[in-house]
Design a protein that fits this description.
Blueprint (H helix, E strand, L loop, with lengths): L3 H15 L12 E5 L6 H4 L25 E6 L5 H8 L7 H6 L1 E5 L8 H6 L2 H10 L5 E5 L4 H10 L16 H10 L14 H14 L5 E6 L8 E5 L13 H11 L4 E2 L6 H11 L1 E5 L6 E10 L5 E12 L5 E7 L6 H17 L4 E11 L6 E9 L6 H11 L2 E3 L4 E3 L5 E11 L8 H11 L10 E5 L4 H4 L1 E8 L2 H20 L19
Helix pairs in contact: 1-7
């Protein structure tokens, strides 16, 4: 490790020097190594249906092959169906399919374990050597989903820079690190604790928060390195309000709370307090006040820190959440509501500048809770989390940008095509129903063609599909539905669901008990 870190820093400086004044969205004459590794806790990843197929989220990177000198190496744990690759390559504007295909090298490890993909690559030194030989190292860089010690090690072994924040900075993307950034930037955020590493500390922080806010009805307990809300739990205080710190001895409060933690409402269906508590020493945890509100949303802002340190805002979204307490990410609408999207930009820029000052580069996002006051209809924003990585809102926006060659207009928060036409979309990773199980990617292509569900390059509206590899086994599909308004995007999305239902229910008509976990429709 002592040798790896200095060399990694040298490579990162090369990245800054090489592309100091260049926009990294559309590099020319370079090699891009895409390692879509979800280097997260395997127990959290294992709770997500089709988790391995989330490596397909970064397939939008293939659209970069529209530049005739760009080469891409795309690594996956499992082989990708050839028609999935063909699907993305046919989206390329103005480039012959065969020309792009010659500049793409696919690498599959044939390893279905839940180990991070980067670890699987490092475990295969012959593969590392093969990738290294294939790269023009003086004009190459690596992209990933999130950056950890594994990605840093691979960067050094390949001798190419990693276009991502250094693992040394990952704390600032954790729950407790986020809270410190918000406090530093004087950004409103829920009252709560710093990181704790055992149950005793957690209990004390719950008591401290309850003492400061005696009328709290709920608290949120979060694993410090949770993913997509899967590491969250709700502590309901209403049934033990008689044991609040201001009503009884603190020792009694802690005793009651200790037993009450076993009744936490976990966002992951199969989670238990026994397992959750075992993760606290390893991952850390925080506790926060639960933000109440009759009209409540979960918007987010996405930013980008160039290697030069310049910060730009990419997009804003209204996230669509599900699960027991609407803590699990399901999808998003772009752009966020006009009532608060410019405020999101302002806060997002402030956070990005704080991260850049600490040395971070590449993608980041900030999640919020927005509550509308019933009297004046104003929205109050509370920042709740920083993601120092790509996320569920990254691939739909990049897909829109790379397909349309348009630009994000900071003055309005809209995305405009080259013809100044605003574009809107709804995106989901969770169009999932039991009746979709058994559909092969080729079957999906038949349905797309027959029902004309494709993306129309002339109108720049339609659908772009992803997570197609998860369809057959898990009945799960991702889709970005692009329209000229939010209402049109919603209609396009609804039509996808209606047609898939029609096509599959004809086959599964004998089974009327299928369960739906798709996005709620008609949310505006």
């Amino acid at each position: 490790m002592t040798e790896v870190i200095p060399r990694f820093r040298e490579l990162q400086h090369q990245l800054r020097d090489r592309w100091h004044n260049v926009t990294l969205f559309d590099q020319d004459n370079c090699d891009i190594l895409v390692v879509p590794s979800f280097s997260i806790d395997p127990q959290l990843g294992g709770k997500i249906p089709g988790f391995l197929h989330y490596e397909e989220r970064l397939l939008f990177s293939l659209i970069r092959l529209r530049n005739p000198y760009t080469r891409v190496i795309y690594v996956t744990a499992l082989p990708l169906c050839p028609i999935i690759i063909d699907y993305y390559l046919q989206l390329l504007p103005g480039i012959p399919f065969s020309h792009a295909r010659e500049r793409l090298l696919q690498v599959s490890l044939y390893d279905a374990s839940l180990k991070p993909l980067t670890q699987k690559i490092l475990d295969r030194p012959r593969l590392v050597a093969k990738i290294r030989r294939a790269l023009r190292r003086d004009r190459s860089y690596m992209v990933c989903y999130n950056s950890t010690d594994l990605e840093r090690e691979l960067s050094v072994q390949l001798d190419i820079p990693l276009l991502a924040a250094s693992p040394e900075l990952l704390y600032w993307g954790s729950k407790s690190g986020s809270r410190e950034i918000f406090a530093e930037c004087q950004i409103p955020h829920p009252d709560g604790s710093n990181n704790v590493t055992n149950t005793e500390q957690l209990l004390q922080e719950i008591v401290n928060l309850w003492t400061k806010q005696p009328h709290l009805q709920k608290m949120v307990i979060k694993l410090n390195e949770g993913f997509s809300g899967e590491g969250n739990a709700i502590l309901d205080l209403t049934t033990i309000k008689d044991y609040a710190p201001h009503r009884c001895d603190q020792t009694k409060t802690i005793t009651v709370l200790s037993k009450h933690l076993e009744k936490l409402r976990f966002q992951s269906e199969d989670e238990t307090w026994s397992n959750f508590s075992r993760r606290i020493p390893e991952l850390g945890a925080i506790v926060e006040a639960f933000i109440e509100g009759e009209i409540k949303r979960s918007p987010s802002v996405q930013g980008y820190i160039k290697p030069s340190g310049e910060v730009t805002i990419l997009s804003t979204h209204d996230q669509i959440l599900g699960g027991a307490d609407n803590q699990i990410y399901l999808g998003c609408y772009f752009p966020a509501d006009a009532d608060y999207r410019l405020k999101l930009q302002e806060i997002g820029l402030k956070v990005g500048q704080a991260l850049a000052a600490k040395g971070a580069i590449e993608s980041y996002s900030v999640d919020f809770i927005a509550v509308q006051h019933p009297d004046n209809k104003e929205w109050e924003l509370q920042a709740i989390e920083i993601n120092l990585r790509k996320g569920g809102t990254t691939h739909p926006f990049m897909t829109l940008k790379l397909l349309t060659n348009g630009n994000y207009d900071y003055s309005t928060g809209l995305f405009l095509t080259q013809q100044n036409q605003p574009k809107h979309y709804i995106a989901s990773d969770n169009l999932q129903k039991n009746c979709y199980c058994g559909l092969l990617p080729n079957d999906l292509m038949d349905i797309i063609a027959q029902a004309r569900l494709h993306f129309d390059s002339s109108t720049r509206t339609g659908n772009v599909f992803h997570l197609m590899g998860a369809l057959s086994e898990f009945g799960k599909l991702g889709v970005t539905s692009i329209g000229d308004s939010r209402e049109e995007a919603q209609e396009i999305y609804n039509r996808v669901e209606q047609i898939l239902d029609r096509e599959t229910q004809l086959i599964h008509s004998k089974d009327s008990n299928w369960q739906s976990s798709s996005l709620p429709i008609n949310w505006v």
